Amino acid sequence: MDRLTRHDLKTDKFVEEVGQTVHFLEEHRQSVIRYSGIALAVLILAGGGYFYMKSRRAERQDALYKALETYNARIMAEAPPAGMKAFKTQAEKDQAVSKDMGEVIAKYSGSDEAAIATYLLGVNAAEEGKTDDAERYLKKAIEDAGKDYGSLAKLSLSEVYTSTGKVADAEKLLRDLISNPTILVTKEQATLNLAHLLAPTKPEEARKLLEPLRTTQGGSVSRAAMQAYAEISPAK
Asked: 173-203, pLDDT tens digit by residue?
C-alpha cells in the first residue's frame, strides 16, 4: 500500500495558521512578563482568571511549537548547522515526534493544541503506513478539535479511507466538508477531493462537481478543476 505524503495530508495554510499564532505570542511575550511588583499584583487581583488563562495558552502554544520543530526537522546523516534541529534516521525522528506530541496531548488534554498534536500523530502514522493508528488518531482529533482544525482532520481521514478502499466512508466525510466548509478546508477543496474520489466509478457525477469550479472559479481552483476534468476517462 502506498504511503500517504505530507502534501496529501497537510495544507500550507495549516502550518501558516500555527506559525502565525506562535509568532504573535513570541512578539508579545515581553509585554506580558514586564509587569512586576505591585502592578502585577493589582492586575492579578483585577482579573486573575483572565491572565491565568492567557498564561496557560502561552504555555500550550510553546509546547506545541517545540513539538512542531521536531515534526518539521530534517533527516541528515551529517551534523546539522547550529540552531537546526535534525535527526540521523527517520526512526529516531518518528520516536521523537511521538514523544513530543504525546506530551502535549497528555499535559494539555482538551485544548486545541492537544487536538492539533493528535492530528499530527495521525498524519505521521499515515506516512508510516500505519493506517489503523492514523484512523484512531484522526478520529480523536475530529472529536476534540474545534470546527476549523477538526475539518482538517476530516480531510486527512478521508485520504486514509481512500487509501484503504473505504470509499463510502471517505465520500461521507467529503460531502460533510462540502456542506460545512471552514477557513482550513474550503468547499472548493473538498469538492475537488470528492471529484477525484468519484472519477473512477462515477465519472459523470465527478464532472458535474467539477463543472462550476472550472467555469466560474478563478486562479488555482479553476486550473485544478480543469486538469481533474481532463483526466476523467470519457464515458463509454
From this structure: 999 999 999 988 889 999 999 999 999 999 9
d(CA 81, CA 213) in angstroms, rounded, equals 45
**Cell 509568532 belongs to which residue?**
23
Question: Does this model's pTM top 0.90?
Answer: no
Reported as a single tens digit per residue, the pLDDT across 3-31 is 444 444 444 444 444 444 344 334 433 33
Q: Report, as ranges of residue numbers, the positions in the chain whose pLDDT lies below 50.
A: 1-51, 236
Region of residue 129 (phi > 0: left; psi between -120 and 50: alpha; otherwise: beta):
left
Using CA atoms, how far apart are residues 67 and 123, in angstroms rounded to an integer?
A: 14
Instruction: List, as one string, the DSSP characters of 50-73.
Output: HHHHHHHHHHHHHHHHHHHHHHTP
SS3 123: helix
114 phi/psi in degrees, rounded to 5: -65, -40
Helix, strand, coil percentages in the chain from 3-state DSSP, rounded to 5: 75, 0, 25
**How far apart are the two ends of the chain, measured CA to CA in Å?**
30
Helix (H) or strand (E) holding 15: helix 12-33
Local structure of 181: helix, strand or coil: coil
Q: How many residues does the chain have?
A: 236
CA distance 109 to 234: 50
Residue that is written with C-alpha cell 495554510 in the block: 13
Three-class secondary structure of residue 182 per DSSP: coil
